[in-house]
């Protein structure tokens, strides 16, 4: 333990990299459970209030499902990745459910990562960043956003679209994960394209992320021995392309890497060793379907999810060393 408290305690007082590493050490897990709730495929048992509107009923059921998933798997996890649109699609009740689920995750001591893949011009990016990670000054006083610990960001619009997230994150002890080399088949369409200098677009994106991360670390304090091992700006790197991991780690020596794509998309924890090289928090594996949908027909979904999460936690620990 480093003396840096785990996620919920006064985030602004400690840089994200140090907080993330402390959380992974304290919980002995580098696993984030992903919640992408489909209202038509929830765990059985939710009973919405009678006479509720469809949106209220669905949001109630989604929140109840999400709470039960978290209660089952939290002991094996360091955090939860909440897929924003899965909640937003239920309108205002869905957004309220997202906030309630985030609060429940925090109560369980989990890091809350909002997976919203934002990307916009600077002024709009600042609004998105405040909504996810910060607060907004108003004539009536500051208004808190969701209070997530970190958010995913799409880099297509370039440095000035990412920088507001880095700024809001730094001011609040939060983190950012920028899409660098995603897990989906379409990643090849653009990210693998060679640029004029022979490097691929994902390599150039990784360099941009490293540069923003170094600037953020410099702004937080001297880049000497006191600098946390991890920068506040991380990268999303699909577990479906493990051959890229060594090069990514070379380009991003201090970035936390968020690794989706294990299980349902074919990625394997055993292939991810290079991601963990920079120490606790350097590699974070996020798994949605293979945990939440782990149960065989007739099996208790909570027990199956608990077992799947525990087995992933152990597999990651074995690879991370
Ligand atoms: O940013 C992400 O979380 C993400 C990036 C990526 O490259 N691939 C990817 O599948 N994801 C997310 O991971 C989740 C799917 O996880 P699985 O159900 O475990 O395959 C969804 O929320 C995706 O949006």
UniProtKB/TrEMBL annotation:
Domain Orotidine 5'-phosphate decarboxylase: 30-308
Recorded GO MF terms: orotidine-5'-phosphate decarboxylase activity
UniProt keyword Lyase, yes or no: yes
Catalyses which reaction(s): orotidine 5'-phosphate + H(+) = UMP + CO2
Enzyme class (EC, first level): lyase
Enzyme Commission number, as recorded: 4.1.1.23
Keywords linked to the UniProt accession: Decarboxylase, Lyase, Pyrimidine biosynthesis
InterPro entries linked to this entry: Aldolase_TIM, OMPdecase_type-2, OMPdeCOase_dom, RibuloseP-bd_barrel
Domain of life: Bacteria
Pathway given in the UniProt record: Pyrimidine metabolism; UMP biosynthesis via de novo pathway; UMP from orotate: step 2/2
The keyword Amino-acid biosynthesis is assigned to this record: no
Family according to the record: Belongs to the OMP decarboxylase family. Type 2 subfamily.
Record's protein name: Orotidine 5'-phosphate decarboxylase
Species name: Patulibacter brassicae
